[in-house]
Amino acid sequence: MKLPLVELHLHIEGTLEPELLFELAERNAVTLPWASLAELRAQYDFTDLQSFLDLYYRALDVLRERVDFTDLTCAYLARARTAGVRHAEIFFDPQAHTSRGVPLRTALAGVRDALERSVDEWGISTQLIVTFLRDRPADEALQILREILAGEIPIDGIGLDSAEVDYPPELFTEVFDLARAHGLRLVAHAGEEGPPDYVWQALDLLGVERVDHGIRSLEDEALLDRLVRDRIPLTVCPFSNVRLRVIDTLADHPIVRMIDRGLLVCINSDDPAYFGGYIDDNLAALDAEFGLGPDRLALLARNGIEASFLTPAAKAALADEVETWLATQREAAGPATAIRSS
Ligand code: ADE
Ligand code: ZN
């Protein structure tokens, strides 16, 4: 039995593996600036968030047709299943496609085609969160949200991503107000590279229910008190933090400190094709580095379930499965461990 997981911080565009990228380039006759897979992979040496985003947006140029978005999403869901993912709330960046001439409806329909097959084919329930690029004008985000609402295009929530510093959440208050008025769920990247003040703004001005990354909240005790008190989830992405040099090495990752502080943290992969692994790889690496053990792995899984936008009944069913997994782990470890950890 695999530990049942939910994934809450996953950019579908960040699951574009080099092999699929080359396949799509050929299919769509797109000339790539990289001569080989090796040459492309050699670019995956990022100095900060912006250096990653430059490559991420460039690579997306191979996504042209509806079926390309379906193939991308299916590839993620198939891999997520092997990781034990049972529910995924997936980010999608409309402006990364509309800005290069791909219609919103084409891209979204392609993603939806895959999501509609997800429960039957991979046993994964899904939700779709449209993320707006904070380094583009808020008016553009507002226009796209209005188009989605007017067209009755089914989405579950909105988020905020892309280059963070100098693009504070307060710029997007009107966008989030409109989304809230239409019953959409609200999340935002904050405190990844940006200061704790951006996390405060995301909470108090945008009214987000969940903070993506939020790792720099650790610099502000009053903010930590607030996050703990209100059980605001932080979707933490360890491989991403290392690759984007938010922290130096995995050994320096504050995940244990965050757990011990009582924060509602869960583990996610962000852009797994670029950062060296999927959600299971992130968890395995943390377990190897910090000796998390079954109890803290189960806690992280439970946190993800609590942080999700699933119904209470679906949350309870998945949480039961986590307890079953934990019991089998304790059994396998033998009676001494079972007594010690109980
Ligand atoms: N878009 C894709 N990945 C991102 C990240 N880690 N931070 C901000 N925007 C992103
Ligand atoms: Zn992200």
Automatic annotation (TrEMBL):
Catalysed reactions, as listed in the record: adenine + H2O + H(+) = hypoxanthine + NH4(+)
Hydrolase keyword on record: yes
Site residues (Important for catalytic activity), renumbered to this chain: 213
Origin: domain of life: Bacteria
Binding of substrate, residues: 271
EC number annotated for this UniProt entry: 3.5.4.2
Cofactors that this protein relies on: Zn(2+)
Active-site annotation: 192 (proton donor)
Record-listed Zn(2+) binding positions: 9, 11, 189, 270
Domain named Adenosine deaminase: residues: 4-325
Keywords: Hydrolase, Metal-binding, Nucleotide metabolism, Zinc
Function recorded in the entry: Catalyzes the hydrolytic deamination of adenine to hypoxanthine. Plays an important role in the purine salvage pathway and in nitrogen catabolism.
Family: Belongs to the metallo-dependent hydrolases superfamily. Adenosine and AMP deaminases family. Adenine deaminase type 2 subfamily.
Protein name: Adenine deaminase
Organism field: Cryobacterium breve
